[in-house]
Amino acid sequence: MEADRKDSGNAGFAPVSHPEERVAYRVGNKKFIDDVGDLLHAYVDRREQVRVIKELYGNQIRELYHSLPYHMVEFAIDDCDRKVVVSLRYGNIMCELPTKVRVLAWPMHQLKRQCTSPRVSKLASQAIPVRLSFAEDALRIQSLPEAYAEIVVNMPQELSKYLCRGVGAKISKSYISLVASLYDI
Predict the structure, then answer these.
(1) How many Å apart are CA 109 and CA 82, to the nearest integer?
(2) Residues pairing with 133 in the sheet
(3) Residues with Cβ < 8 Å from 13, sequence gap 6 or more?
(4) Which of the listed residues 10, 32, 69, 107 has the most CB atoms within 10 Å of its CB?
(5) Where is this protein primarily located (predicted)?
């Protein structure tokens, strides 16, 4: 009878019979809790980075979008000379830094070129973007607010390099057809 009372006191509890299983169970729980903690830390860090750039640079940033878990962040920077679009993707949501970064700049006052192809004429009348690799590199290795400050400071010099080399001034047909295929024009 006494043995029955001891067993009935543990109803709903699945005892681990061997000490090795107990250790494995505890280690598995600890790893799970650590993983959830890392995931939560990365989410809070990404959210805070977005909050800080909105707070510090909100007057310069237009069209800020982000996903609920902040694993996708996009925003545009407008000034009188260009429009810059920043797109960040976090392939590993346990990380604070993005895995995929794209920064494109569109000159606002670029000369428009006429093309003979009707499929491409719509695209050619628009400004052609320049990929800003210096900005992409900064966003891959620094937090969003730090990288943003570096991008804004270095952008005039970097864009002048592109314009001095003639990038954006001449539009090759192969580049236009590549961009047209991307946009299904």
Answers:
(1) 8
(2) none
(3) none
(4) 107
(5) nucleus
Distance CA 157, CA 160 (A): 5
Q: Is 179 exposed, middle or buried (0-12, 13-18, 19+ CB in 10 A)?
A: middle
Please name which of 170, 156, 60 lies closest in space to residue 110, comparing C-alpha atoms. Answer: 170
Q: What is the pLDDT of residues 124-138, one digit of tens each?
A: 445 678 889 999 999
* Model confidence pLDDT, tens digit, residues 58-92: 888 988 999 999 999 999 987 667 788 999 999 99
Query: Which residues lie closer than 8 Å to 91 by C-beta, 6 or more apart?
Result: 99, 100
SS3 10: coil
Rounded to whole angstroms, how far apart are CA atoms 130 and 104?
A: 5
Q: Report residue 134 CA to chain centroid gap.
A: 15
DSSP secondary structure of 98-162: -SEEEEEEEETTPPP---S-HHHHHHHTSPPPEE-HHHHHHHHHS-HHHHHHHHHHHHHHHHHHH
Give the other-Cβ count within 10 Å of 65's Cβ: 10
